[in-house]
């Protein structure tokens, strides 16, 4: 693994190595937490993911949120700290996809109350959007059919 270039860090499976890199101010800690999400127990990876979520570097932060999404997919659960960090960031930004991954892969019964409400909201919004788009398509199809009859 090369902490200078980031090469090989997606294979990182040792939280102590990440901690040592953090202490010496190494680059690519965001990439490394993705590796931890893939290869370590959730409880070992979670505090490190949350730490990188607070970094000022946008690329590093983005990787931390990617790691949270992978953690949700792989473990079908998240820690309270990861739930709190995702909630604090909210939909519409860097946490959009990890939140949607969480809503998709973590069973409803295991979601905290805010995520349960969000899941209901997102499900209803998606269904209404689907119906709206279907009706718009139907109107457009009807308009095209009528305009074809007028020009004959």
> What number is the mean pLDDT?
92
User: What is the tally of beta strands?
Assistant: 0
Order of helices and strands: HHHHHHH
How much helicity do the residues have? Answer: over 70%
The low-confidence parts are none
General shape: elongated
Strand content: under 5%
Label the structural class. Answer: mainly alpha
Provide a compact summary of the structure:
The protein is mostly helical and 152 residues long.
What this model shows, in words?
The chain has 152 residues and is an all-alpha fold. The protein is built from seven helices and no strands. It has helices spanning 15-23, 29-39, 42-53, 58-75, 80-89, 96-105, 113-150. Helix 2 (29-39) runs antiparallel to helix 3, helix 2 runs parallel beside helix 4 and helix 3 runs antiparallel to helix 4. The chain is elongated. It starts with 14 loop residues before the first helix and ends with a helix.
Features of the shown structure:
single chain; mainly alpha; 7 helices
What's the topology here?
Layout: H1 15-23, H2 29-39, H3 42-53, H4 58-75, H5 80-89, H6 96-105, H7 113-150
Helix pairs in contact: 1-2, 2-3, 2-4, 3-4, 4-6
